[in-house]
Amino acid sequence: AWTPLGSWQDGFFVACLGVAALGAAVCVNRSLAIAPASAVVPYQYTMIIWAIVFGYLVFGDVPTIPMLVGAGIITAAGLFIFFRERTVGVPQQEELAPER
Question: What is the Cα Rg of the chain in Å?
């Protein structure tokens, strides 16, 4: 059930969390604009690891075997695509654009 914030310090920390989350989202979007998605996305899979670690340390959430298997499948599929695109040599966006 929802309970109101206890003090102004709680509101301050919630606001700081919002600013940090916004900054992280901007950085992820900027990285996707600068580099090819195939190079950036594998690093985003570390969010799964961080979610497991912080979930356990902060909330006491013990990961289950099916959850770890699912996270492993998602990570393996993303890394497979990453390495496949590196070996196949997908042309970059600049090579696809017509010259003016």
Answer: 19
